[in-house]
Amino acid sequence: MPYNKDLYSTPYYKEPGPKLDKESPFESMMERFRFAAELLQLEDGMFQYLSSPTRQVITSIPVEMDNGEIRVFEGYRVIHNNVLGPSKGGLRYSPDVTLDEVNALAAWMTWKCAVVNVPFGGAKGAIKCNPKELSLKELERVTRRYTANMLEVFGPEQDIPAPDMNTNEQVMAWIMDTYCMHSRKSDTAVVTGKPLLIGGSRGRKEATGRGVVTLVLAALNKLGMSPVGCKVVIQGFGNVGTISAKLLYEQGSRIIGISDISGGYYNPDGIDIPKAIEYSTANKGSLEGFKDADPISNERLLELECDVLIPAAKEDQINRHNAPNIKAKIIAEGANGPITASADQMLDSMGILIIPDILANAGGVTVSYFEWVQDRQGYFWTEERVNRRLNRMMRSAFQLIFEVKEQYNITLRQAAYVYAIRKVADTLRLRGIYG
Ligand code: NAD
Question: Per the confidence metrics, is the pTM higher than 0.85?
């Protein structure tokens, strides 16, 4: 039986208001999920199963602050689905995070893992806190107590956190250590994105940007274009943005625009990327005052005429207001959700090839998978091996999704959702419903 529209009354789905400028990540995800479900004629039960999280944990985290006071933080962990394997997903620290947002991000992880064929389900965790207001010791106590509260949830074969917004290698090290103290074993595979010294993987930090570039090269190839001399614009100059810029620069592409929170920088002859990275590194991660390019607003930067546009900053950057002004041939979504669902349709009708986030930025989770494999084997790979295998998996995922796109005559994003949802649904049918 095809899926039933009434299921949109599910508490996890909110109908967007008619005048909304900002579309929530969950609304965007559900709109794309519904399209794929319709195409696959997903039965009602399966639709309901795949749009509801398997498990949601809300926990109170009491912490003694440096001044002796006790504060209680709220923490979440949502396992959206674990049919394909142990669930995998980042942990973010943010003062305004909500359970709804965590639900959306967890579902996104399920589709992302399925798209790149890593044997993981999807999850996401969060703590409602502002890490800028916490001392290092307080941050450690918050992290360790959250981990202790999640001992039954986390595990190398159950649920594996990784860094996300405002968390890093150090936070992962504390989680691993707390978990191991309780398990009385060296369970390094309980988290990924760890420091190299305690079981992290070579190439993990660069993996997302490297994956983005592998897919940009594959897309250029499909369109019969060469990376040499091709004009590239990149929004966001953090981890994903700088690595994408550096690798495309090394391919001979002309990076004509870059930006960060301080604004945009434009040079039609091409920006010297190693110089820009050096400048930003010396300037506490900011391009502010960068002189080798003309200043330009972040809005105008997105509208520059170029071959490849890589939004690698944050969500909702290309929406129905600015979509008609986009002049790129290819957009690779380095960030999660940078294009809203309504802009998607406009860009598609303009003939722009969009490499969707669940495919484009899946290099990070792919090398997280490699880290987990290495930890479990106790055998660590060279960076060259990590990069080679990453490139192979990303290229093969691109090819598979491209075939689905051609088969149904749909967009790459729709194809990625169709592929992922079909894979999880087929696996569930094989396993069956227990009970
Ligand atoms: P980051 O914090 O290292 O960098 C973010 C960059 O975006 C910074 O340069 C910041 O100044 C810039 N920025 C913020 N707001 C901006 C704005 N309004 N206009 C222009 N620039 C702005 O973050 P990151 O790790 O590079 O992640 C970027 C995006 O990629 C996020 O959406 C993240 O969820 C996604 N992502 C990251 C990874 C990863 O492995 N790092 C993996 C998958 C997805």
Answer: yes
